[in-house]
Amino acid sequence: MSDLRERPVVPFPISDRASAAELVERMAGTSFQGRQLGEAARIWARMLADPEATIFLGIAGALVPAGMRLAFAYLIDHRLVDCVVSTGANLFHDLYETLGAQHWQHRPQTDDVALGRLRFNRFYDLLAPETEFSSSEEFVVRFIRTLDTDRPYTTREFFALLGQALLPAAKEEGILTAAARRGVPVYSAALGDSMYGLALANARTRWGHTVQFDIIQDVLETTCLVTNAQKSGVIYLGGGTPKNFIQQAAAAAYVLGRDEPGHSYGIQITMDQPQWGGLSGCTFEEAQSWRKIAPEADFVTVNVEATVALPLIVSALAESHAETIAKRDRPVISFEGMRGMWRTPTEGAKATPR
């Protein structure tokens, strides 16, 4: 039998001064989830250095309320990611904070009935006042009333326009403002399952202003983003709809007459486990059976809560790969050009293979 020893474990050395990059590098020499976290930083750095890679970020869980808004804005502004797919909830909390409202720390052991009477909404150990939710929702309703009602929008168009409308009112930087400035597409496949869904319902019932969405156009666009890229990489924070929406963009290549091998790089940061059968805990190996992840892909799963892992990894990348990040080419994306790859819904035809 050949020698199975890969490399020695390096005991973690403690020093009175250590940068984020040094911490992550030392963690990579250990084992268990410290090693996995270091591996995630390595794979992300490899994606950034690959001129052929388009990087997708999936955001699930209450990460913006938990304090990750500026980290996401940094990823977008410095183009550590090229496309964002998020729950509608995170994007609403992003708007809420960008307009100047705050989330507040609170003890998890509390009287939730009393909080409900006082109109405070709890997310484990943080609170958001309903009154400020309402003012943020009104901002969205006013924006919705500026949209056309005689044609459908993709969620990308909706959030691009909302980001532009948010810029002059913004008191803080966020996901939507950074994406608007940088031209980074933002999608939300389950838009109705959020305060945006309520704002759209509010605009319809109060003002008779009905805005329609073409979610299938979102599917086609993200599929084009993957098939037009030489390689694609994925970063999943949690799972849920954002994860599957990005996963299926590789599997859906056949609708455009393509045969893609799947995503080439993958990082998953999740506390969910695969044995329950849910997508949020599903492994990259399992995704290979669906041909969503390429057979030779470089990937890692980090079973660490995202508010612990993400700041460490991104801070380490910002420090140790600043030159690579600064030189990274931005992908040229023409969404109008993509429409030539399939017939529009008004033509009443099926997708035309390219």
Characteristic key phrases:
single chain, 354 residues, alpha/beta, Deoxyhypusine Synthase, six-stranded parallel beta sheet, 46% helix, globular, disordered C terminus
Taking pLDDT < 50 over at least 5 consecutive residues as the criterion, the unreliable ranges are 345-354
Distance between the termini: 49 Å
What integer is the average pLDDT?
Answer: 93
Output the helix-strand order: HHEHEHEHEEHHHEHHEHEHEHHH
Helix proportion: 40-55%
- Per CATH, the superfamily is Deoxyhypusine synthase
Major β-sheet annotation: 6 strands, parallel
How many beta strands in the DSSP annotation? 9
Query: If you compute it from the alpha carbons, what radius of gyration comes out, rounded to the nearest whole angstrom?
Result: 21 Å
Counted by DSSP, the helix tally is 15
Question: How many domain units?
Answer: 1
- Strand arrangement, major sheet: 6-2-1-7-8-9
The CATH topology: Deoxyhypusine Synthase
**Overall 3D geometry?**
globular
How much β-strand is present in the residues?
Answer: 5-15%
State the secondary-structure class: alpha/beta
Q: What is the level 1 CATH name?
A: Alpha Beta
Architecture (CATH level 2) name: 3-Layer(aba) Sandwich
Question: What do you see in this structure?
Answer:
This protein has 354 residues and is an alpha/beta fold. It has a single domain, classed as Deoxyhypusine synthase (Deoxyhypusine Synthase), CATH 3.40.910.10. The protein is 46% helix and 13% strand. The protein has 15 helices and 9 strands. Strands 6-2-1-7-8-9 form a 6-stranded parallel β-sheet, sandwiched between helices. A 3-stranded antiparallel β-sheet has the order 3-5-4. The radius of gyration is 21 Å and the shape is globular.
